[in-house]
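Action item from last meeting closed. Structure (36 res):
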């Protein structure tokens, strides 16, 4: 595996993790608004 594809995979994993964190944060925020 050459470095370009490895870097792409690392960036892709980082973006997916960031998206997961954002999704969970948004989901909990929506739940809080419903409970309020």
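Sequence:
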């Amino acid at each position: 595996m050459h470095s370009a594809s490895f870097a792409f995979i690392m960036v892709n994993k980082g973006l997916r993790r960031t998206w997961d964190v954002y999704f969970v944060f948004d989901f909990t925020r929506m739940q809080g608004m419903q409970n309020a």
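Note appended to the action item: The mean pLDDT is 89.
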